[in-house]
Amino acid sequence: MSSLSWSKNGKQAAKGRTSQDFTPNIYRKPAINEDDKDKKGDSQNVDGPGIYNQRTIVKTLETDLGQLQERYEAQLKEYREKEAVLADVKARYDSQMEEYEEKQKQLDTLKEDLSRQEELLNRKCTILKSAVQKAEDTIPTEQIRELEEKRSEFEKNKAELEQRLEEFERTQQEYEQQFTLLESNRSELSGMRAQYEEELQDYLGRKKELEKKAHSLEEQLAAGNDASLGIEGLNYGTAIDLVKSKYYSELKELNRKKADLATLREELENEESLLNAKSSSIAEIKAQIESEFNRLIPQTSELEAAMAAYDEKVRIHEEREQRLSQLTRKYDLDYATFTQNRQELEELLDRQAKEELDLEERKIAASESRRQLELEIEEINSRSAEFREKVAAFERNTELYQHDILEYEENLRIYTENNNLLQESLSVYGEELRSFEERRAELESQKISLSGEEESLLQRKSDIDDRRRELESEESMIVSWRAEVESEKASLKSELESIKTKREGNSKLESELESGFSELESRRRELEALLETTEKEIGTHITLHRQNLDIRKVNTKLEQQSVYIKSLEKSISEMQRALDEATSDARKHEMFSHILKMNMEI
Fold first, then answer.
1. Burial label, 425 (beta-carbon count in 10 A; 0-12, 13-18, 19+)
2. Positions of the region Disordered (predicted)?
């Protein structure tokens, strides 16, 4: 029974006592029977009417004072008990308010953590957007797609491995629980075995005693004595039957315990066999997980090797493109020089034929002209040999060029295929970016809902403060009510009932606050999960950014190589200019020789 119900019952009892108690009037005359008038008349003649009235009044006053004192003490005791109940209620309310303030502080800290996490999330979102924009601008789509496929495959294998590890841990926990149950059953079985052995020893001792008693009784019967076995009202036959019934009941109980022990032993053996089977299955699962983990390790190394090979292929492809461009430029230059040299060779051959005809017709030419002609012939022969060597080298270069053209066409086909795959991966990446924006919108909506819940919690806090002030005012009313006990009984009862209802309301509010805290905790866990996913995505984009930096380094190397190619082109242009100067000198010499011939003819 609670203190409040006890106080209510006390109030009702006090009301009943106040309504039933007799409050005598000290000023009324006592009732006198007509039969006793004569006797009282005689006594009045002896003592007098004044003395009798005073004695009766004193007795009634003493009884009334005793009743009033007892009733006052009972009411005072009841009020003290009610005061203790009110003090307990106040202390409980103060403790509940302290708990509420602590919870409010925890809520404030959670709000601060949430704001910090939101700032971090916004910062990470900006970093992620910038990284995504840079990656979209610089990284080829084919490389992104291949990396995403490999990453998704690796994450899939990792998720499968984690799932298997969870299953392994769950089976291990079940195995440990069953092992503890087996140990408890084994301990119970050992205790039952010890108890059984003790009972067996007791039974054997009793059996020996009964055998001794039976032997002594048989000896007494053989001697002709009638024994009573120390049992009152029983002769020998009934005592033997009683002993036999006890013996058979104990034997039956012992057999039952033996059967229970055998069944427990069988159950224990069955559980041990099941545990052995489960341990073997767990070992197999563990071996499978280890093999899967060992299988995933080379896959990661293969993934890294494939990425390195892809980078190497890209570098080789770019180098081949550069070399092909150099070869094409060189081929163009060689072809131009070859055509020019061929024209010069044809001109020189024509000139040589003309000069040979002129030499055959004019054998009597001057020695100087002949010497010059011989020198020119030697020069022409040397140039023709050089031209032949250049023609052979050019033919070799054409064969190499055809081979390089085939390789370039194959690499160009591979590059186009990789470019198509990269475009597909970029489209997938755009879809993931849109999903990330949707998640961010969901986070914003959750933030708005959390702010609304915060406002509702503040409103509830203000309501609780108002109720606290109301309770304080009610406490002041209770203090004033102590001075007016008789007149404020009904108000005290109503106030206690209102305090009880408010206490229930406070408990409801506390339950609502706890549910709100649990919801905030669940949402905080969701935010942490989202933060983990964003951090993972940021890690992937950071790797992409690093790859972008590597690509930029390769681009700088390519630029350096292009500068080197430009320097080579400058050297080639200088060589071409020198060749032009040489051809102009040759033309001048030809003109001089022609003038010399004309002079000789003249």
1. buried
2. 1-54
